[in-house]
Amino acid sequence: MLRRGFQMAVIHGHHGTLPGATHLLPRFNPASAFGSSTESLVSRFCQEMTKTKNYALPNASWGPDMLSLYHEFLEKTKTDGWVRVPSFRSNRDHIQGFKLPLELSANSDKSDWRLFTRCIEREGQGYEYVIFFQPSEKKSVCLFQPGPCLEGVPGFAHGGSLAALIDETFSKTAYLSGEGLLTLNFNIRFKNLIPLGSLAVLNVNVEKIEDQKMYLSCVTQSRDQQTVYAKASGTFLQMQLEEESSQQ
Question: What is the pLDDT of residue 179?
Answer without folding.
Answer: 84
